[in-house]
Amino acid sequence: MKNLRWLKQFSTGTTETGNGNGKGDETPSSVDGKRRRKLKRKISLGEYKRAVSWSKYLVSSGAEIKGEGEEKWSADMSQLFIGNKFASGRHSRIYRGIYKQTDVAIKLVSQPEEDLDLATKIEHEFASEVALLFGLTHPNIITFFAACKKPPVFCIITEYMAGGSLRKYLHQQEPHSVPHDLVLKLALDIARGMQFLHSQGILHRDLKSENLLLDNEMCVKVADFGISCLETQIGSAKGFTGTYRWMAPEMIREKHHTKKVDVYSFGIVLWEILTALVPFDDMTPEQAAFAVCQKNARPQMPTECPAAFSRLIKRCWSNNPDKRPHFEEIVAILEGYWESYNRDPEFFLYFKPNDRKLLRCLPKCINARSNSRKPVLSMIKGSISI
């Protein structure tokens, strides 16, 4: 039997590997050992019982942990050390830990024994998430390390994002207080990650601030692919379980949908970043869904919102999916804004997105303004809408 040191944290009442006195089996002298010592803490009786009830599904006497068959993504659980739990859901727990000397997040998902339909759905979401994450490499997509399939418990190991979720960060800010340069950076990270996903034929289908994670450098990575799918596998949205406040109207109506549902959700997320508010916070999720579908309601745009952002947001959350831009265009627009803002921090005060050709000439316009010190408002008034 493998040396399942990670499991001993539950049987000893601490979150460090070791024997009953709380000390490890060996004296850690490496960086890995130092990290493990930091994870030590006492757990409550209730947490201990829940942990044991989950861990019994993962190991049994004389058995290996890897479940049914070996996969390329199968985890070597002897290299996994579980630390503090930092998030939980109805059927999941997320822990911080170490896997092969790397800080990781460990998501454990359990199938309810009393609900076979839900158990099947959870297993399908696990299989889908692992299949989609495996092999994806991009600076703005969460890094997948390994997984373990041992029904009724599944385990997914990804990189640990120390900054937590974008929703958590925004909750800590005052309304309308996020600087425009940071809004732009966060939006670009998300758009680039989504552009990559769509280029791989993948729809996320649950893009929201809770599923966007931050590192210590405020870099955003797209995460949580449990209800994602390949573009070739799209059907109707019947029985779909996304999040109403961010969900495109065609999905709420359970109609056929395309990758443009992610663009709609991106528009809501960009509004969130600008306002640091929860969309439709004065409604229940069901009320929000009804308002979006039946009344074409959208979150209220703040009066002080720069036209550059408000125009893009309104295009993204258009009721007609065909009028929503692709992420390739969104990235190009935001990159144009970023370059222009770096040349002139007052860019958002005068820019009006009214000309198709304007984005390509923005840096030149800013240059001209810097050289002549004359306003360029007359240069950007104008013609057709982009």
Automatic annotation (TrEMBL):
The UniProt keywords, alphabetically, are: ATP-binding, Kinase, Nucleotide-binding, Serine/threonine-protein kinase, Transferase
Q: Which GO terms describe its cellular component?
A: cytoplasm
Q: Does the keyword DNA-binding apply?
A: no
Which Gene3D superfamilies does this UniProt record tie to the protein? Phosphorylase Kinase, domain 1 (3.30.200.20), Transferase(Phosphotransferase) domain 1 (1.10.510.10)
Q: Which organism is it from?
A: Spinacia oleracea
Instruction: Give any GO molecular function from the UniProt entry.
Output: protein serine/threonine kinase activity
The coiled-coil segments of this chain are: none
Question: What is the protein named?
Answer: non-specific serine/threonine protein kinase
GO annotations under biological process? signal transduction
The UniProt similarity line reads: Belongs to the protein kinase superfamily. TKL Ser/Thr protein kinase family. RAF subfamily.
